[in-house]
Amino acid sequence: MKTNAIEEALVERFLRYVRVPSQSKANGGKVVPSTEEQWDMAHLLQKELEALGMQEVSLSDKCVLTAYLPANLPPDAPRVPAIGFCAHLDTVDVSLSPVVKPQRISYAGDDIVLNAEKNIVMRATEHPELTPYVGQELIVTDGTSVLGADNKAAIANIMTALATLAGDPALRHGEVYVAFVPDEECGLWGSKNMDFTKFPVDYAYTIDCCALGEVVYETFNAGSAEVTIYGVSAHPMSAKGVLVNPTLLAVDFVNLFDRRETPECTEGTEGYIWCQAIRSNPTTAMVELNIRDHDKTRYEERKRLIVANVEKLRQMEPRCRVEYTIEDTYGNIADAVTDENRQAIDNIYEAMEGLGITPRTISMRGGTDGSFISTKGILTPNYFTGGLNFHSNYEFLPIPSLRKSYELTMALIALTYKKAQ
């Protein structure tokens, strides 16, 4: 398929997908998927996978959609590693409209009027990230929603690649598995509910970061802690020596941590403990903490610090009762790298070189579905969708970058086959 035809196929799919509302809602994984709308996206893709002739198309009761394209190998060919691609069905809820009204424009370098009626303008002086894309076609929002390139650009990429492979028997490849999962934006709950017997790959890729050339195989180790402080209530007129105020104790507890090691004071690979919320009443206070660090040893030290500070609080006020829970959320992809699976990462750089893409390797201050999948023994690095300004009504997707992301997907599949010969 010619470049222009590929571009149009990618854009057509992307525009179709973003018009399906599929925001997720944070609920701590109590119900997965968190919104009914994500089923609409899953059912659409299920039908398309079946129409393409994919095998073992399966939609779980948790809205995890899996399928695979059988290997297309000549007789007596050596085994080719099975590879997988994962993208998420949901778009983020940042209190904007769930309905996406995309616009395709040619960017000349000036301000972009996203919505004249509402006077929503993307000003070039305020958005220098637009500068490299002067002269290119962009897909933008109408200013009332996110665009949803996070992660529907990846879905369009993967589905177009499957269509290309299925339509051309001359393109040799091993087994290619796909997984489309819900609720990535609110805790990676989709990947945590994957049936990995339906994703039996040697390694995999997520396509879930930003500008052209970005590569991620180092993410945070992530966990959460919940500390519950039980005080003693009393009427203020007779409170002296009786009242144990859990709200004040929660403040005392939070103040035991180093204020310099918080999200607003750290960058790069510096970790933190983030007091995300304090909820209290006259008898009980609950403190929610997020724990993040790229280094596994430091991450474990931060968990131990929380336990030590709980004990300090108990000593400060023996009349209170303090309980806590600490849970791991996801791991650093880099901790899953071995000599045997390193090829998954090396292939990204080799394929980029062949495509003339300059790599930009990032230590992500966050995580992807691959951060969890990698903890299951399936190394899953991440590469760019091409989109920028995710989680914003100023999100935009340069069409040439979307095409390059697709070309990288195809190159990785081809390279995996080539290296096995």
Automatic annotation (TrEMBL):
- Keywords of this protein's UniProt record, alphabetized? Aminopeptidase, Hydrolase, Metal-binding, Metalloprotease, Protease, Zinc
Residues holding Zn(2+) 2: 150, 185, 391
Question: Which reactions does this protein catalyse?
Answer: Release of the N-terminal residue from a tripeptide
List, for all copies, the residue spans of the domain called Peptidase M20 dimerisation: 217-312
Q: Which Gene3D superfamilies match?
A: 3.30.70.360, Zn peptidases (3.40.630.10)
Q: What PROSITE patterns has UniProt attached to this entry?
A: ARGE_DAPE_CPG2_1, ARGE_DAPE_CPG2_2
Residues crossing the lipid bilayer are none
The cofactor(s) it depends on are: Zn(2+)
Q: Name one GO molecular function term.
A: zinc ion binding
Residues that bind Zn(2+) 1, according to the entry?
88, 150, 208
Q: Where is the active site?
A: 90, 184 (proton acceptor)
Q: What class of enzyme is it?
A: hydrolase
Q: InterPro entries recorded for this chain?
A: ArgE/DapE_CS (IPR001261), Bact_exopeptidase_dim_dom (IPR036264), Peptidase_M20 (IPR002933), Peptidase_M20_dimer (IPR011650), Peptidase_M20B (IPR010161)
The catalytic activity of this protein is classed by the Enzyme Commission as 3.4.11.4
Single GO biological process annotation from the record: proteolysis
Query: What does this protein's record comment on cofactor binding?
Result: Binds 2 Zn(2+) ions per subunit.
The record's section on PANTHER family has: PEPTIDASE T
Q: Which family does it belong to?
A: Belongs to the peptidase M20B family.
Q: What is this protein called?
A: Peptidase T
